[in-house]
């Protein structure tokens, strides 16, 4: 009998290889995700499938290339460590990964510059050390694109954290309301209320700054 948080028994080599091939072709599904911590092929497929979207997620929230790279690596390391506890009923692999990313980015925001400086001078794995020139250029481009919307982000920063989290996931990361709810760990109805309030506050803020009404957009469910 399988216990909570424990992996099922070992798979045959043939089963493992077939699973990895399917993951490369169709993506890592909910039933395969728990194996990414023990199956390098599955993790590689999961990484390739999710890394671009995750880099966008982090770069929109972190204005420094090296820190964005470090955080992206930290998210995948945390995913490896906790994959055996994943349950399909708690959300898709993507929403599960973004839930991890949201927590790590929020923790990073709360750290002081002094704490980060101390970390930089110590030993340890640095995701930025793995960047090649093309990776660095892509992250820089994403950070620059985010900076072009600085007024929007400044307005979003004034929102309550719970409302901002849902708004970012839906408006910036293009998750559905249901996916965003899973990522932040609330019911879909709660996420809809938070999204409505966030959009109302944000609209009022931006309209006041621009001096003209902003067209409304329909929610994605």
Outline of this structure?
By secondary structure, the chain is mostly helical. The protein folds into two domains: 12-114 and 131-147; 149-221, Winged helix-like DNA-binding domain superfamily/Winged helix DNA-binding domain (Arc Repressor Mutant, subunit A, Orthogonal Bundle). The protein has ten helices and no strands.
Fold and architecture overview:
The protein has 221 residues and is an all-alpha fold. The protein has 2 domains: 12-114 and 131-147; 149-221, Arc Repressor Mutant, subunit A. Helix content is 65%, strand content 0%. The chain is built from 10 helices and no strands. The protein has helices spanning 13-26, 40-59, 65-82, 93-110, 113-120, 133-147, 150-157, 161-172, 177-184, 188-210. α3 (65-82) crosses α6, α7 (150-157) crosses α10 (188-210) and α9 crosses α10. It starts with 12 loop residues before the first helix and ends in an 11-residue tail after the last helix. The model is unreliable at 1-6 (pLDDT under 50).
What are the main properties of this structure?
221 residues, mainly alpha, Arc Repressor Mutant, subunit A, 2 domains, 10 helices, disordered N terminus
| Principal-axis shape | globular
Estimated share of beta-strand residues: under 5%
Number of strands: 0
- Secondary-structure element sequence? HHHHHHHHHH
Q: Note the total helix count.
A: 10
Question: From the helix content, strand content and strand pairing, which structural class follows?
Answer: mainly alpha
> Overall mean pLDDT score?
75
């Amino acid at each position: 009998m399988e216990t909570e948080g424990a992996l099922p028994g070992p798979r045959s080599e043939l089963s493992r290889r077939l699973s990895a091939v399917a993951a490369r072709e169709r993506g890592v599904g909910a039933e395969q995700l728990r194996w990414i911590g023990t199956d390098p092929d599955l993790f590689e497929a999961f990484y390739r499938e999710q890394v671009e979207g995750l880099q966008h997620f982090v770069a929109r929230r972190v204005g420094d290339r090296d820190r964005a790279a470090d955080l992206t690596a930290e998210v995948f390391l945390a995913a490896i460590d906790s994959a055996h506890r994943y349950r399909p009923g708690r959300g898709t692999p993507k929403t599960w990964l973004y839930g991890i990313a949201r927590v790590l980015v929020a923790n990073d925001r709360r750290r002081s510059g002094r704490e980060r400086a101390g970390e930089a001078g110590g030993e340890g794995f640095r995701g930025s050390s793995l960047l090649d020139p093309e990776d660095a250029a892509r992250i820089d481009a994403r950070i620059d694109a985010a900076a072009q919307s600085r007024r929007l982000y400044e307005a979003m920063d004034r929102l309550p954290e719970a409302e901002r989290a849902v708004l970012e996931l839906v408006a910036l990361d293009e998750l559905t309301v249901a996916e965003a709810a899973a990522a932040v760990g609330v019911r879909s109805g709660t996420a809809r209320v938070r999204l409505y309030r966030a959009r109302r506050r944000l609209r009022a803020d931006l309209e006041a700054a621009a001096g003209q009404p902003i067209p409304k957009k329909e929610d994605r469910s």
